[in-house]
């Protein structure tokens, strides 16, 4: 079960200055929202619309190929290294962190049911790359290099380093330790995979990086570490059916998108905070930050995403949330049942912390979430809450797919193209110029001149 509640953003709870007259707004936007949902679903199969991610839950063929590959290599590797950046890594990090047993990489092989450890190298800090390579035995490591374009400098530089080391250690057998995930037709990685004979998975056409977590981009690493990718698909399918509903009252992605949009344009809430009360969900806001920022930050429009984790960030951000500028809409993610219960022993009863004894850490987490929510209402700060029963493949897929559709609908409300990132591409071209990529020499000199003033 997944529930969505928004009453704490209503005028009746947090007042006219900061709250919305939600029922009136819903009625006013009902037909526009209905058109947006119909339109997205009509356009999704058209080439070039970049909406194929809406079909990923139904991709039985990929599911089959990924499962086949995972069972072929089962037991052969102790480690997986995923090379990728942005949309090619963040979804994988968020899902594995949420679904694998906590501290997975520290568990013994038996405790991991023989599945490998998993490491994501999503940054090019030479110290962390070297640090990881120092501790892993590459012979027992499968490298999944993921880049849709096939030539992203950050990913491919790391791949060049590791591919070279693999060949030195394994001779001709090195290619068996590489699986590439990239575009079907284009790109350098595609060529290399053919030339050198790596196992290859495709990122489907019209699926952008930040919407690709449920394509082979995520499914391959998930299956390799033993996650149930069929349950993931079921979660997306069920959510997709729900989100086809054109009635705003019944469509929680539309509700979330509209409330974020109206809070921005009518109430000046320029920051959208995502705050799960679960440590296992701590990378979901990280993934969401990219999804929301790259999709909606265009033409001077969009909301700034901000990550927060309950309860830790009560001790870093809550002062600002309650008492700083009232410019944020905070979305909580709450979990009804944690997988385990942690009892607090009845000790130190003679001290000021004695009241904690006999309770559970679960009780404390819930009390903290409730108190944060109420204190925000006390300060007339708008909030919404997504609640899931538990953290498992089905529910995590539902939350993430919901946030993807919410982003697409928000893009339509802002009247921007949520599926490109022109302002990032400009900086990528500058990187090529600085690093001497052929064809970029002209802009290199101009760039050097500009850098003198920076
Ligand atoms: O959302 C996006 O499209 C980007 O964040 C990309 O995922 C990121 O730039 C990596 O690109 P690629 O997969 O081509 O290496």
What does this structure look like?
The structure is a single chain. With 454 residues, the protein is an alpha/beta fold. It folds into two domains: 3-41 and 234-414, Glucose-6-phosphate isomerase like protein, domain 1 (Rossmann fold); 52-227, Glucose-6-phosphate isomerase like protein, domain 1 (Rossmann fold, 3-Layer(aba) Sandwich), CATH 3.40.50. It is built from 16 helices and ten strands. It has helices spanning 11-18, 22-43, 60-73, 90-99, 126-135, 153-170, 188-196, 216-224, 229-242, 252-267, 284-296, 318-323, 361-378, 393-414, 422-435, 441-451; strands at residues 2-5, 79-83, 117-121, 141-147, 178-183, 199-203, 271-276, 304-307, 328-335, 383-388. The strands form two sheets. A five-stranded mixed sheet has the order 1-10-9-7-8, sandwiched between helices. It has a five-stranded parallel sheet with strand order 3-2-4-5-6, with helices on both faces. Helix 4 (90-99) runs antiparallel to helix 11, helix 9 crosses helix 14 and helix 11 (284-296) runs parallel beside helix 14 (393-414). The termini are far apart. The relative contact order is 0.15. The mean pLDDT is 96. 5-phosphoarabinonic acid is lined by residues 85-88, 147-149, 152, 155, 208-210, 294.
Any idea what the radius of gyration is?
Answer: 23 Å
Number of helices: 16
Number of strands: 10
- Compute the separation of the termini in Å: 51 Å
Low-confidence stretches: none
Number of domains: 2
CATH class of the largest domain: Alpha Beta
The CATH superfamily title of the largest domain = Glucose-6-phosphate isomerase like protein, domain 1
Structural class: alpha/beta
Q: Classify the helix fraction into a percent range.
A: 40-55%
